[in-house]
Sequence to fold (228 residues):
Amino acid sequence: MQMYRNEDILETINMIRNENLDIRTITMGISLFDCVSDDNARLCDKLYDKITRTAENLVKTGEELEKMYGIPIIHKRISLTPISLIGGNSTPDGYVRIAKTLDRSAENLGVNFIGGYGALVQKGMTKGASALLDSIPKR
Amino acid sequence: MKAVITVTGKDGVGIVAKVSTECAKYGINIIDISQSVLQDYFAMIMIAEIDGLNVGFTEFADQMKALGKASNLEIQAMHEDIFNSMHKI
Fold:
């Protein structure tokens, strides 16, 4: 039987209660490649469905873990495939619609962050990546 | 699976009884109890077997917390794994 030293137990509890020990974040990674579509509205629908379906229980599971182990989890977040790879031939306005879709899904799921609205440009920009960058100042 | 239940607060009559009665209600087998009283301050650590738990662990943890609140104590039930991760290599 594995036993614990009382000092160890009290030390851990002291860290959590008084020294703000916590789990900073749990992150769910979601691949969006299967959502690709040449029609922007259809793409947005597929993105919304896939994200909300996949991460349906993320916040709930996080909260269960917090209770089970008695340690707070500060952020529950989602990390996505870089959107410039998914948006492909979208216009900047199309990307804005995608961004709003991502916001809406994050809000409905209750997650703290949704990451992935970005482009990989370190080896040069594609048309899609450039359109995504152009969408950033728009609303 | 084991849980570690810690009870801290001001010393009083019947703390062990209250907590162990609640444990029995949820089908929990207490393996080990150690307690210390430092001046007026009471700290008890229970190691308990939770395989026979008749509700979900989170509900049990909530109930223990509520019991603590009602008795002016701080009661926390935690899965043992957090202590394994923190203190064992």
Residues 73 and 87 of chain B are 26 Å apart (CA to CA). Chain B has three helices and four strands.
